[in-house]
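re: ur question from earlier - yeah i can do the single chain one, its not a big deal. heres the input i used so u can compare w yours
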Amino acid sequence: WAAEYGLSVLIDVHGMKGSQNGFDNSGQSMGMQWTSSVNVYPRGLTTFQHWPIRNAGWMGKFDVSTLKYSEINREQIQHSLDVLKRITQLYSGHPAVLGLQPVNEPWEHTPIEELKDFYWQGYLIMKRYAPYWKYIMHDSFRFDTNIWGGFMNGCPDRAIDTHIYQAWQDPQSRLSFFSDACAQKSKIATMEREFGPVLVGEWSLATDNCAMWLNGFNDNLPGFPRLPCKYVACADPYMGFDQPGTPVDPSKALQGPYGTGMSGPVWGMCPVGRDWVKERKKAAPNDWIHAPPSAPKHLDDTDFVMSQLALKKINAFSGVGHGFYFWNFRTELDEPHWSYMQALERGWIPKGNLNAAIVSNACRREDNGMFECVCKRNQLESTVRGTIKYCLNGEGILGDDQNYVDNLQGDDLYNEADIVFNRYWSAHRVDGATCDFGGIATLKEINATDTDEIDDDFFYYYGVEENMAGLVLKIFWAVIGGITVGGIMGFFIAMRVSKKFNASVSRVLSRTDMGRALQGSRVFSGTFHPMDLNYDEIKDAEPNAWAQLTPSHPKA
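and the output i got, formated as tokens:
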């Protein structure tokens, strides 16, 4: 059906025999150990570890102590080449196939010369049976011109693939993520110049690690997610209810087995991404640190942040490189950060011409240097000093020339950090440096002013919405009170001033026992009796309506 709708298909061999990276998306999570026996309490707890002992056996035997391969498995490499040959022969004549990617994400410990040799052999096989296909090689998480510059130079139809995600970065401000997205242009341009065509084969709009099972079933990287996640109602299983553990039981907390991190259904709710909130502090945009994972409706700024981030990423990936693939096409949960279809529906990803001005100008402010990297205040001074020295080392300022930093404290220390951090970040931004420095720095818009007068994060995020019902109730009673007081004052004035109104009221009251009792009261008659008001007569009054009360009137 891809050919029918004018779509091209890149065939990507995602799993290798023995696993090329140890990820579950290679077909097998390599490096896994049950740790249940060490748990005394609570009883029956089933646990395992994977990430701390991850392994990959495609290329051979990996030694975790040296982080190198002690043996190369030629048989498994040949098996992979045979698979490439079979795939090429099978689809060489298909009109929708764009090309072949021989292996997805071989991990960073893969012997680079062995990998390059595999790429060479795979290229020759593909060109023998499908001479017009494109050949896309993953960078093995090493997007480095020192490794790939000049590789297979002169060979037609080859490209390098790199996967650019922000989901595994430390939490940052929106400005930092924007800047990081735009900074990819320089790295892509450098690789285009030194190697050739660059394809961003995977990217998403996620800025967190919250998506359920992103790092494996019931597992996560140690220390992830970095911030609390938003939860939504779990979806029905797309493979049917005959799958184990389905449907999700809304009466149960997170079920085992438990990995080194946390990810899974809780009380029928599944984790997705985090919302972005409207910021108060334009000059120091750190509101995201204390923001709740699910933003109150009146503070939800997710659509704006995500649409801006998408424009900046597309500007970097398509404006300089040779294209991109968004990961993924769709998801079963309401997770547009990872779903192209949902991101399109939400308006995060633009439709139509990707060369439109809204895309080509998306990184204008970042490219023109309209931001500076500053140190957050109220950080540990020892940490700030250490980071300043790290930056100075990077600039070649060593030894005794750094001693001045030890004598700085308070505002002097922070001001010096502003200068050093911004200088280092500006110099290395194009190489992928972010304005984070271990969480003690953030981006600030140049010449922005901070007009925020509220410094109560809890009230900002929770108070307004939580008190909304009380606020509405207060307004209601204020309106009712105003109407009541206004009505009483109006009645009093009308009875004292208007003969006609006084007569009408007296006529109505005189017709009922309760009304006559009210007329007979000292307070009422003493306040509104015609004799008090110097009325000579009330023509419209009920006959003897007030006369019968004259003896009781204090002035009668």
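Confidence is low (pLDDT under 50) at residues 449-462, 533-556. not sure if urs matches, ping me
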